[in-house]
Write a structure and sequence with these properties.
The protein contains nine helices and six strands; from the N terminus they run αααααααααββββββ. The protein has 362 residues and is of the alpha+beta class. It is elongated and about 95 Å long.
Length: 362
């Protein structure tokens, strides 16, 4: 292999080294420059270098996946908090209108009392031509006093409600601002990881990128073969529920559409955007992120999974796919890739969750 070829590989691996040093101070790769050896040795060094690039890319894209989950979670919280702030604002407006009307009523009652002259009951009895009229009037006065007390009580409660609404709105606003900052920080992480990965890939020539893609497939196939060799597929015979069939139909219809972090379709998706939208299309809302899907949905043994179930990958639950049967799954892999079908065991499985645990299968 020519020195120009080896130079390009060396450049790519040098970028790997630089990224690694930035990500983990103190860590370093061995000198990537190939020593003068026969061509077979040079080819072997190139394969090793590309494998190092593949592993580094995998690490970067997984980090971007974790950050994407953080971003999606922050966005989901922000949406809920925004809705709560809007509802509290509506309550405040209604409370202010109620308070205005109560104050108008209180003012009218005060004016009526003023017009009565404020004379003591004995004076009204003396001045009255008819004692019965006085007694009837006294009853109305007592009723008026009770009504006034009730009015004042309602005024006080309304004012207290308004104060509480204002406190709640202020607290929700602070949470919303914190959520926005978390979302911005997650976005920065995502963009940094993807930029580093793209820098690595752009340092390679076209044939090297093609070989890199082959290495990714080889690694996935090796993992899938090991998974199948365990005999697990002989145990998996679950039938999809009606909702599961609809979810699978939706997910597979998206095959070929690009991955985009934070996207929920209809043109682009990230991994959990695809699975959550597929289940929404089937009539069942589920958590937005892969980590929340893992936390909140019912866990199912791998051998009991059925089409429509979600497979959660890696120890940090940073990736999710949908099982479609026959040992295969559909997923949105990572930036630069499209929604595709792959082996269910092509990545390390953390576990399986079921969005519709209460429905039967057919």
């Amino acid at each position: 292999m020519g020195t120009g070829k080896r130079g390009l590989i060396a450049t790519a691996v040098a970028v790997v080294c630089a990224v690694t040093v930035l990500a983990a101070p103190g860590a370093a790769f061995a000198n990537p420059t190939p020593s003068p050896t026969p061509s077979a040795g040079a080819d072997l060094a190139t394969a090793q270098d590309l494998e190092a690039v593949r592993k580094k890319l995998d690490k970067l894209y997984r980090a971007a996946g974790r950050a994407t989950d953080e971003y999606n979670a922050a966005e989901e919280k922000a949406d809920k908090q925004s809705a709560e702030v809007v509802e509290l604002a509506k309550k405040i407006v209604k409370g202010q209108e109620k308070l205005r009307k109560l104050k108008d009523r209180a003012g009218a009652a005060a004016a009526a009392q003023y017009r009565g002259g404020g004379l003591p009951p004995e004076a009204h009895l003396v001045l009255s031509d008819d004692p019965q009229d006085f007694l009837d009037g006294a009853g109305r006065v007592r009723e008026g006093h009770h009504a006034t007390k009730g009015l004042l009580g309602e005024l006080t409660r309304t004012q207290e409600d308004l104060e509480q609404y204002a406190k709640d709105a202020s607290a929700q606003w602070k949470k919303l601002e914190a959520g926005r900052k978390a979302k911005a920080a997650a976005q920065k992480k995502i963009e940094k990881q993807i930029a580093q990965a793209e820098k690595l890939e752009s340092a390679l020539q076209k044939e090297e990128q093609e070989r890199l893609a082959e290495l990714e497939k080889e690694a996935a196939n090796k993992a899938q073969t090991a998974w199948l060799d365990s005999g697990i597929l002989d145990e998996i015979d679950g039938k999809a529920s009606e909702q599961g069939k609809k979810a699978v139909q939706y997910a597979t219809a998206q095959i070929g559409k690009p991955y985009q972090w934070g996207a929920e379709g209809p043109e682009t998706y990230d991994c959990s955007g695809l699975t959550s939208q597929a289940w929404i299309s089937a009539g069942r809302g589920i958590p937005r992120t892969s980590q929340e899907q893992w936390k909140r949905l019912k866990h199912i043994a791998v051998q009991d999974m059925r089409p429509g179930d979600l497979i959660i990958y890696f120890g940090d639950a940073s990736h999710v796919a949908m099982y479609i049967g026959d040992g295969a799954m559909v997923h949105a892999p990572r930036p630069g890739r499209t929604v595709t079908i792959a082996g269910a065991g092509s990545m390390p499985i953390l576990g399986v969750v079921r969005p519709d645990p209460d429905t039967g299968a057919n």
